[in-house]
């Protein structure tokens, strides 16, 4: 494995990583992807490390991906769900984590509805903190696996490539992390969706804004399509899901009408028939399942690299 070290002891957000950090993670993930495709998929890299998975929000893909990554690295794991914990009885975040750390936990993977919760925790405890999603702020591991998957699909680095993020940009932590990651890698980034779901000042992050799906598909090399996050919307941002699909949804017929094969991605879960039709999600241009596989390798890389810092 690479001998270089990350510039930070935590993964709180893409905003705090350097371009060198990104390449180190990708190089390490490539090696771990070879490991998880072997008959024996387990390595002893983290056998002396205990990881606590603290999920204060519901999660399926991210939680399972982290748990599998930890098991592949031979780490000891503790799984915590807020729904069945003392948080329901009024226990604070810091007390909850301190109680877990008293059990000699080395690393904490945390998803929390409050933006900045992982940053707060990193200043209070000694364990390495990995942000698995904090409110509408960031989702750094998703952005890392997305960028890794793009490079793999294009067989190229992303400098100069055109990447468009479609959908609910306003409520998406994935969008923000993707923008930070892709711009650091030199990609040209555009966001596309209804005006009500595009943050007003997003252009300050160095991205273009479009409200035309067809023109954006013609422009981009990769279409990263995001879910409409109805659970985060306290008001109506568009008349109906049917109207959203008619105006901003992407179908296989649209993809077939383009002059080039656009790579189609989605972080999941997919609202089939809303942001993507089923035949578009299942088409040869889709790398959605590859994203899931790459998620394990990328999270193995992050766990390994952060654990390596503990030994320095």
How would you characterize the overall build of this protein?
The protein folds into two domains: 14-139 and 292-310, Aspartate/ornithine carbamoyltransferase (Rossmann fold), CATH 3.40.50; 140-288, Rossmann fold (3-Layer(aba) Sandwich). The protein is of the alpha/beta class and 312 residues long. The chain is globular. It is 38% helix and 14% strand. Helix 2 (61-72) links the parallel strand 1 (50-55) and strand 2 (76-81). The chain has eleven helices and nine strands. The model has no long low-confidence stretch (mean pLDDT 90).
Secondary-structure topology with pairs:
Layout: H1 19-36, E1 50-55, H2 61-72, E2 76-81, H3 93-101, E3 107-112, H4 117-122, E4 128-134, H5 140-154, E5 162-166, H6 173-184, E6 188-192, E7 208-210, H7 213-219, E8 222-225, H8 241-248, H9 252-256, E9 263-265, H10 278-281, H11 288-310
Parallel strand pairs: 1-2, 1-3, 3-4, 5-6, 5-8, 6-7, 8-9
Low-confidence stretches: none
**Gyration radius from CA atoms, angstroms:** 19 Å
How would a textbook summarize the main sheet? 5 strands, parallel
- Could you name the CATH topology of the largest domain? Rossmann fold
Distance between the termini: 15 Å
CATH superfamily of the largest domain: Aspartate/ornithine carbamoyltransferase
Q: Specify the number of helices.
A: 11
Tell me the β content.
Answer: 5-15%
């Amino acid at each position: 494995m690479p001998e270089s070290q990350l510039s930070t002891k935590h993964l709180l957000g893409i905003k705090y990583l350097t371009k060198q950090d990104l390449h180190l993670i990708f190089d390490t993930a490539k090696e771990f992807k070879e490991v998880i495709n072997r008959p024996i998929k387990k390595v002893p890299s983290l056998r002396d490390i205990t990881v606590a998975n603290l999920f204060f929000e519901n999660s399926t893909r991210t939680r399972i991906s982290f748990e599998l990554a930890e098991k592949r690295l031979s780490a000891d794991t503790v799984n915590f769900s807020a729904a069945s914990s003392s948080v329901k009885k009024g226990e604070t975040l810091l007390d909850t984590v301190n109680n877990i750390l008293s059990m000699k936990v080395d690393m904490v993977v945390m998803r929390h509805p409050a933006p900045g919760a992982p940053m707060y925790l990193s200043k209070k405890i000694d364990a390495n903190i990995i942000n698995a999603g904090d409110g509408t702020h960031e989702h750094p591991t998703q952005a890392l696996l997305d960028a890794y998957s793009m490079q793999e699909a294009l067989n190229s680095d992303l400098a100069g490539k055109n990447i468009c993020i479609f959908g609910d940009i306003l409520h998406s932590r994935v969008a923000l992390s993707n923008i930070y990651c892709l711009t650091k890698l030199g990609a040209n980034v555009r966001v596309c969706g209804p005006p009500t779901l595009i943050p007003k000042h997003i252009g300050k992050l160095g991205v273009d804004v479009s409200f035309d799906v067809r023109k954006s598909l013609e422009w981009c090399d990769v279409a990263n399509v995001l879910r409409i996050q109805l659970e985060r919307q306290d008001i109506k941002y568009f008349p109906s899901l049917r109207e959203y699909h008619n105006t901003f949804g992407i179908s296989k017929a649209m993809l077939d009408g383009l002059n080039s094969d656009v790579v189609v991605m989605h972080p999941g879960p997919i609202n089939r028939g809303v942001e993507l039709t089923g035949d578009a999600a299942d088409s040869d241009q889709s790398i959605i399942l590859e994203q899931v596989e790459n998620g394990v390798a990328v999270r193995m890389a992050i766990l390994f690299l952060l654990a390596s810092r503990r030994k320095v």
